[in-house]
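sorry for the late reply, my laptop died twice this morning and i had to redo everyting from scratch. anyway the thing you sent over, i finally got around to it. pasting the sequence first so we're on the same page, its 64 residues, then the predicted structure underneath. double check i copied it right bc i was rushing
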Amino acid sequence: MYVLPRATLLTLFAAVLAGLAVGTIVRGIWHDQVLTVLASAVAIVLADTAITRLMRHFGIAIGD
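ok and here's the structure:
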């Protein structure tokens, strides 16, 4: 069994929370399921990328 490092898990958790928040906002405004899923996916990718870059910038080990 492979165990992910704590920093990686926290990054993924924060990215998923950002995706849920964006999806909820988009769904509340436009009431479109497809747009909601796409916006959530984009938010997860962007949040994960941003958090990973910040962690690398500050020298936090991310388990790459």
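The chain has a mean pLDDT of 92.
thats about all i looked at so far, will dig more tmrw
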